């Protein structure tokens, strides 16, 4: 004889099924991640280390190479400041970004889904660099006499900006940036040119830029400790583990004939990046204490 459920039993069965369905849908929702599909453009951006034109020209060959290897469109995005790049990567508006060590640790402090991919080696072949305090050679600047002098910085969240330059002054000048008239010039290029043009007495810039502008009269007064090189970082909320591994492998196996045509700070090859490489940066100070406006503001 077929068994018939009465109303109370039906209600209990319905409730049980509803609860099971809710649990199943919740589990499925946790497992579904909005990863970038092969038909969607991979959005990638560089830090604005130079002017818009120079930054895009330097980074475009990287985007072209990834597009060819991945067989997927790559959209190159330009943003005006380090903070804008950090915010866009954090919010998922970018999938990959080139970051310096300070922007990365600033972002990683609030978003653990930002993963290091590769470091770009410097011309020395090492995946590390120093911040340099530079002056115009003809000005005969004494590093111990910089109180109330004009200091050109890049950006608040540039490794060689406030934090890197302040570390140099504390260790070698006997005072900190707060005893100077510092101002942000947005890029390493602009900070270097401010000194050359006489608009600033000294500047804190990445060592590669100090070398590039030496022919125009810049001399190095002092250097910071070594910090990890600039690199590429992926948002794991946007890219699957498989995508991240594939992109890393593509970059690490790129032949020299390919990357030698990339921007001047990316043409010396790459090596794998990891979280442990950023420990040395902690000696520079607390990023949360960086002033976001110039000292005279």
Describe the protein's architecture and organization.
The chain is an alpha/beta fold. The chain has two domains: 42-126 and 228-284, D-Maltodextrin-Binding Protein, domain 2, CATH 3.40.190.10; 131-224, Periplasmic binding protein-like II (D-Maltodextrin-Binding Protein, domain 2, 3-Layer(aba) Sandwich). The chain is 35% helix and 19% strand. It contains nine helices and 13 strands. The strands form three sheets. It has a six-stranded mixed β-sheet, with helices on both faces. α3 runs parallel beside α4. The longest helix is centred in the first third of the chain and has 25 residues, at 7-31. It starts with 6 loop residues before the first helix and ends in a 25-residue tail after the last strand. The relative contact order is 0.18.
Task: Write a brief caption for the model.
The chain folds into two domains: 42-126 and 228-284, Periplasmic binding protein-like II (D-Maltodextrin-Binding Protein, domain 2, 3-Layer(aba) Sandwich); 131-224, 3-Layer(aba) Sandwich (D-Maltodextrin-Binding Protein, domain 2). The chain has nine helices and 13 strands. The chain has helices at 7-31, 52-70, 82-91, 101-108, 162-172, 188-196, 207-212, 241-252, 256-259, and strands spanning 42-45, 74-77, 96-99, 114-120, 128-129, 131-136, 150-153, 181-184, 202-206, 218-223, 227-228, 231-235, 270-272.
First-to-last CA distance: 89 Å
Strand content: 15-25%
Structural class: alpha/beta
Number of strands: 13
Number of helical stretches of at least 4 residues: 9
Q: How many separate domains make up the residues?
A: 2
Topology pattern, helix = H, strand = E: HEHEHEHEEEEHEHEHEEEHHE
The overall average pLDDT, rounded, is 88
Shape: globular
Question: Architecture of the largest domain, according to CATH?
Answer: 3-Layer(aba) Sandwich
CATH class group of the largest domain: Alpha Beta
What's the gyration radius in Å?
Answer: 25 Å
Task: Say which CATH homologous superfamily of the largest domain is assigned.
Answer: Periplasmic binding protein-like II
Largest sheet strand order: 2-1-3-12-4-13
Residue share in helix: 25-40%
């Amino acid at each position: 004889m077929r068994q018939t459920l009465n109303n109370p039993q039906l209600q209990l069965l319905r409730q049980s099924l509803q609860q099971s369905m809710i649990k199943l849908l919740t589990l499925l929702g946790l497992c579904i991640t909005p990863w970038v599909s092969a038909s969607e453009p991979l959005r990638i951006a560089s830090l604005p280390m130079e002017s818009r034109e120079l930054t895009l020209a330097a980074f475009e060959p990287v985007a072209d190479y990834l597009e060819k290897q991945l067989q997927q469109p790559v959209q190159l995005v330009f943003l005006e400041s380090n903070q804008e790049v950090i915010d866009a990567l954090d919010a998922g508006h970018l999938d990959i970004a080139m970051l310096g060590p300070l922007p990365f640790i600033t972002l990683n402090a609030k978003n653990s889904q930002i993963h290091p991919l590769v470091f770009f080696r410097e011309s020395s072949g090492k995946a590390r660099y120093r911040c340099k305090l530079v002056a115009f050679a003809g000005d005969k600047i004494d590093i111990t006499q910089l109180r109330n002098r004009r200091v050109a910085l890049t950006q608040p969240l540039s490794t060689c900006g406030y934090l890197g330059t302040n570390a140099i002054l504390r260790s070698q000048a006997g005072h900190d940036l707060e005893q100077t008239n510092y101002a942000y010039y947005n890029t390493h290029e602009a900070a270097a040119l401010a000194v050359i043009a006489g608009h600033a007495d000294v500047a804190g810039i990445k060592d590669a830029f100090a070398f590039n502008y030496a022919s125009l009269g810049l001399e190095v007064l002092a250097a910071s400790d070594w910090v990890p090189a600039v690199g590429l970082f992926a948002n794991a909320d946007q890219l699957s583990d498989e995508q991240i591994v594939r992109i890393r492998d593509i970059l690490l196996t790129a032949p020299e004939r390919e990357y030698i045509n990339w921007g001047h700070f990316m043409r010396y090859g790459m090596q794998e990046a990891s979280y442990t490489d950023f420990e040395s940066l902690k000696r520079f100070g607390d990023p949360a204490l960086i002033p976001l406006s110039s000292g005279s503001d």
